[in-house]
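thoughts on my protein:
***
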Amino acid sequence: MATQMQLARQGIITEAMKIVAEQEQLTPEFIREGVAAGTIAIPCNINHKNIIPRGVGQGLKVKVNANIGTSSSYPDPEPELQKLAAAIEAGADSVMDLSTGDNISASRQAIIGASTVMVGTVPMYQVTVETILKRGAVVEMTKEDIFDVIRQQAADGADFMTIHCGINKNVLKALIDEGRIMDVVSRGGSFITGWMLHNDKENPLYEYYDEILDICAEYDVTISLGDGLR
């Protein structure tokens, strides 16, 4: 199945583009051109069945995101569904599921199933939680662990994902050589940085980026590029 961008580049105006055009009070052709050029994204996973598509990007209204998600202290997904409903009622255009509690997959599936707005995820959070449970330490995670979670989240209907692919060996060298007042501030970025330093390997999210694109293309997932340092 073709993605919104692929269809736009074929000159096709999709139903999602028409909906976004109406929301933005712009022409469908304007939206199509922006999607084709990569200046507009419509995060709209093919498996997120009840979503009302929204556009993000150049020439469009500013979008508001709300962060929700379970934690180890509060693992019950029910309050997150209440937060989701409150965010949508307040006018949020998207939510990010940042769950790190038990049953992360079940929480995500419940949130996506109940959400009419786009849902984002941070795969690295789930990978680290599961790796600690399985192997005792974040630095023991494997490329397969990471990509299994990315594929699972895509199949579940996540509309966009923050992928911490902006850190590589050259970036780490510059970080170490220069020094920074705050060092690595990003949570997901710190996990990747610690893994790279411990294992003396390249960031799998950077090294195998094309494989991530293949997964995202299959489900029409939009990537939110995470620099990983802040």
